[in-house]
Amino acid sequence: MVFPEYGITGFIDAPKMARENVYPFMEVLPDCYNGTCKLCCQKSATGQEIQNGVACIAKQSKMYVQANMIAARPCEVLKDHNCPYDNHYLFNTNIIFNPAGCMIAKYHKEHLVEEEPIRLDTPRENQHVTFDTEYGRFGTAVCADGLYKLPMVSLVEDYQIDHLLFSSAWGNAEWWPIMQPMEWQYAMAARYNISVIAANTHEPSESYTGSGIYRSQSALNYTWDESDPLKSTMLTAELPVITKRIKPRHLPTAGDTRQSAAPTGQAIPKPDGTITIVNDTYNVRILKGDTGGAEVCYGTHCCCLKYARNNTQELYVLGSYAGVQDNVFKLRVESCLVLRCPTDDLKSCSRHVELSKTSFSIFELESTFISEYVFPNILPMSHAYSKLDWKFIRPDRHSNVIKSSGDWPLMAAALIGMDF
Known about the structure:
This protein is mainly β. Helices cover 9% and strands 35% of the residues.
């Protein structure tokens, strides 16, 4: 069972909320050694009411439970020059309990976003928190942590997790038509070939919705509803039991040239215009006709699309970008995307749109990336993933293809390479 980020404390991401406002929610956690944290369900636990409550939920339900809370770590300003003025560190923290009701792991969020640094602290040490169960090896992460090499790549490649417990408060931003919450949940499962059990904060008035359970390229169960703030949903799904610890995480290196997608000896196609998404300026080509192909480049990074669609009345564009994304990721990215635009004006393409009448019987988006860490993003209308037939294919470590077909409208798709 996985609770969302701020699921216990309440949604405390209000702008400029002072550090002191977090004090009522904070608790000191026990130290953990070799999967033992010296805290189990008790009849009473003064000063540990939150963690003890979760411990007893785990024990009573006989389940593994992950919850998110504010953890305090005492320190002394005179002995620790990094110690905050109030003599304790405050961390956004996942706590995990076993079916016996005992804490077996804790993890402090490493990548704080937006106003979080006003009131919370970043742990100084890198963490790779895993725990083994009869169902396989689990890892844990919080929200923006899922975007970075640490901890995610290390959890998958070095610690070989089978399943990720992911708590988040990830918004459906109108100004960011790609990488909506469920898109990235799905992208992590597909790229890392793992299970992702993702619980996202449900606060429709602030556009925070979308949770799901995924296994590799399959969306097993999910929910997305922006209409009712009280309509939270408990999701369940069957995941494979994995007992073998050794599994391939890297593709063979045959044909691994680490080159861009620029066509050798060919003229780079001229874009039809540009669009700006989160301060990144994409070169774009407008899709024309009900069937055909398109190619667009940003420098030497080129994106290719083959398509056949049932409707030509809505504006779709193919876009390419390569550069430093310093507003969100703060690292170099290469991106190929296809977007449904709200109007016939290219400037509108930077906004998220919910409705479409256009479905693609053929959709093949491909490119070659410098990085081998390329994530497939796909967004069907109404987040109805079960209505699309799609595949993420990696012919080698740097070539990537999204193939999709079906009679359900496609709002957006993207291949996003992160140069970790």
